[in-house]
Design brief:
By secondary structure, the chain is an alpha/beta fold. The protein has 15 helices and 22 strands. Helix 4 runs parallel beside helix 5.
């Protein structure tokens, strides 16, 4: 089946018009075959300037449309993406190397996110002053759009992470300039083509693909009121440092080094399934990857045997690029150099492309690079524990705090343990379920702010109080 292509592939969208990029050109590489799909030319500094100006010009009218009007647009977008689902799934497979089941989940998530914020808009009053009970003066507060938002999204879940930002920002009344990753821009190009094809007012959404330099221009632009970034901790730190000079609003979704804790009473078949999915789904290219497997010593050996059996038939995609493949291989080599006696069980994946073997690691020390660093590849590191207290200490011993998974037949004990974990989301006996109604984000260096749910809407809002004399 031929992957669906957007009707315009010029690459840059400014004020409702597709344009040929005037910036740097790069090749689009097939992760499954290492073959060149084609080339794309990114935005220039001048095109970005025009995109920000277009978003600024469109802001007043988009804000005046109100929640009801904006919600109708979001509902149309959700329906249009659903209509194009088959082609978008093929697009994800072609340019990101995802298996069909992973690509279909991505498209379903995009639809669900736009649909959720469309429904949320229906519940919000057009003017939303909320009274504060005070006798001395009449006090009320309301939320208003933060302004023009710059959105920078990663390559591991193209379209999905963009929808997580686009939908709440549009619902809040913001206008946007989106910069997708240069490794996976076609998904965002397709999504924006669908959105603009519906006749969205010019300038409300603008697209400026390109490399790191385009992201730097966007973050430094004085016309951007808010930056929402998903990506690496190192880049997030740079964005935060730059934003400090301008007191710019910033939301950051960064890395993770999350734990999956298997208690002695766990269902081991379920634990093996959750361990494989948590470490190997999307080739481990997830900030939420539960790549540190903590297992009670009582069931350590039988669980790892079940995991090895599942690995033999596990299906996932390749890594996104040659650079990512080299990075993962280097980290594994470093881990082995630190501890040559490590036990590795590996199952090859997509050797013609950027595949890295599914890798199960035993015998790690807590100071090993594989236990400490976010690998962003299909590498599952294991360690035994003897008590809940030890498991909690090991799980929390990280600069990150995004997610955790617990497997136990004793729900009361699991919930008590969850209360002690420093993580924004804790799954108990479930896969990594993510719903647009629930917040996404973590503790410590994993996040600054939250996405999804009403919290995602608030992230693109300013809070205004009004005090009026009661006399």
């Amino acid at each position: 089946m031929t992957a669906w292509q957007p009707t315009r592939t010029s690459g840059v969208l400014v004020a409702g018009q597709w344009q040929t990029g005037e910036g740097a050109r790069w090749e689009l590489i097939d992760p499954l075959t290492r073959q060149v799909h084609g080339q794309l030319q990114g935005a220039s500094a001048e095109q970005l300037e025009r995109a920000v100006a277009a978003a600024r010009q469109a802001l007043a009218d988009w804000r005046a449309l109100g929640y009801a009007g904006r919600g109708q647009w979001l509902a149309r977008i959700a329906a249009a993406v659903q209509q194009q689902a088959e082609g978008l799934i093929a697009l994800q497979q072609r340019y990101s190397g995802k298996p069909a089941h992973e690509a279909s989940m991505d498209v379903a998530d995009v639809v669900a996110t736009f649909d959720y914020y469309a429904q949320l808009c229906e519940t919000l009053p057009e003017r939303q002053p909320v009274a504060v009970p005070l006798a001395e003066v009449a006090v009320s507060y309301q939320r208003e759009p933060v302004g023009v938002a710059g959105l920078i999204t990663p390559w591991n879940f193209p379209m999905v992470t963009s929808a997580w930002k686009l939908a709440p920002a549009l619902a809040a009344g913001c206008t946007l300039v989106l910069k997708p990753s240069e490794l996976s821009p076609m998904a965002e190009l397709a999504l924006l083509n669908i959105i603009q094809g519906l006749g969205l007012p010019q300038g409300v959404v603008n697209l400026v693909p390109g490399g790191a330099e385009v992201g730097r221009w966007l973050c430094a632009h004085p016309g951007i009121d808010k930056i929402s970034f998903t990506g690496s901790r190192a880049v997030g730190q740079q964005i935060l440092q730059g934003a400090a000079q301008r007191i710019q609003r910033v939301s950051l979704e960064l890395g993770g080094k999350s734990a999956l804790i298997v208690r002695a009473d766990a269902d081991l078949d379920l634990a093996a399934q959750l361990a494989c999915d948590g470490a190997f789904f999307n080739a481990g290219q997830m900030c939420s990857a539960t790549s540190r497997l903590l297992v009670h010593r009582h069931c350590y050996a039988p669980l790892l045997e079940r995991i090895r059996q599942r690995m033999a038939d596990y299906q996932t995609g390749p890594l996104i690029s040659a650079g990512q493949l080299a990075r993962v291989a280097s980290l594994v080599a470093q881990g082995l150099a630190q501890a040559p006696d490590l036990a590795l069980h590996q199952v090859p994946q997509h050797e013609a492309g950027f595949g890295f073997p599914l890798t199960l690691v035993e015998g790690l020390a807590v100071d090993n690079v594989l236990w400490q660093e976010e690998i962003f590849g299909p590498v599952l590191c294991t360690m035994a524990f003897d008590s809940d207290e030890q498991a909690v200490a090991l799980a929390n011993d990280s600069p990150y705090g995004l997610v955790a998974t617990l497997v136990s037949r004793d729900l009361a004990a699991a919930e008590a343990l969850a209360d002690r974990l420093q993580a924004g989301t804790v799954w108990i006996n479930t896969p990594q379920l993510i719903f647009p109604q629930a917040a996404w984000g973590g503790y410590k260096q994993s996040s600054l702010g939250r996405e999804l749910g009403p919290w995602g809407l608030e992230a693109f809002s300013e809070l205004k109080h009004r005090l009026v004399s009661a006399g």
